[in-house]
């Protein structure tokens, strides 16, 4: 039997044995206020700890080559504004579907014409 990871609401602290740049400490402190953070698991926080190390490398050492890696991690967790917009748009799109019949009609792209016959749409 597979046991799912327990969700945690408490954010771990950054390890004391690393000298963290002030920008990374501030960023880490704000992570818990990210929408959806209350559903992050211990494994998620471990992964975000890796993101903190990358963040510290960028802000502490000026290793800007790591920026795309950090941005990808942040996007995966819905932390960036663009990622939050995508999540919101997906929720809105999901709510727009009213009934199972609406979904079927949308998938098949059918249009009812006179006489009750259905004809497949051709792009309009």
Task: Describe the model.
A two-stranded antiparallel sheet has the order 1-2. Helix 1 runs antiparallel to helix 2 (42-61) and helix 2 (42-61) runs antiparallel to helix 3 (67-76). The termini are far apart. The protein has 124 residues and is mainly α. It is built from five helices and two strands; from the N terminus they run H-H-H-H-H-E-E.
Strand order of the largest sheet: 1-2
Beta-strand residue percentage? under 5%
SS field, number of helical segments: 5
Low-confidence stretches: none
The structural class is mainly alpha
Assembly classification = single chain
Sheet having the most strands: 2 strands, antiparallel
Rounded average pLDDT: 81
Cα radius of gyration in angstroms: 22 Å
Give the total of beta strands. 2
Percent of residues in helices:
40-55%
The shape is elongated
What order do the helices and strands follow?
A: HHHHHEE
Distance between the termini: 50 Å
List keywords for this structure.
124 residues, mainly alpha, two-stranded antiparallel sheet, 5 helices, 2 strands, 52% helix, elongated
What is shown here, in short?
With 124 residues, the chain is mainly alpha-helical.
């Amino acid at each position: 039997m597979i046991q799912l990871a327990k969700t945690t609401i408490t954010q771990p602290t950054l390890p004391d044995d690393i000298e963290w740049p002030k920008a990374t400490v501030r960023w880490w402190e704000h992570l818990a206020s990210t929408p959806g953070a209350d559903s992050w698991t211990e494994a998620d926080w471990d992964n975000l700890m890796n993101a903190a190390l990358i963040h510290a490398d960028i802000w502490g050492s000026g290793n800007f080559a790591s920026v795309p890696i950090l941005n990808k991690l942040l996007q995966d967790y819905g932390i960036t504004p663009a990622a939050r917009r995508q999540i919101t748009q997906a929720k809105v799109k999901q709510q727009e579907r009213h009934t199972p019949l609406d979904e079927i009609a949308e998938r098949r792209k059918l249009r009812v014409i006179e006489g009750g016959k259905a004809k497949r749409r051709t792009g309009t």
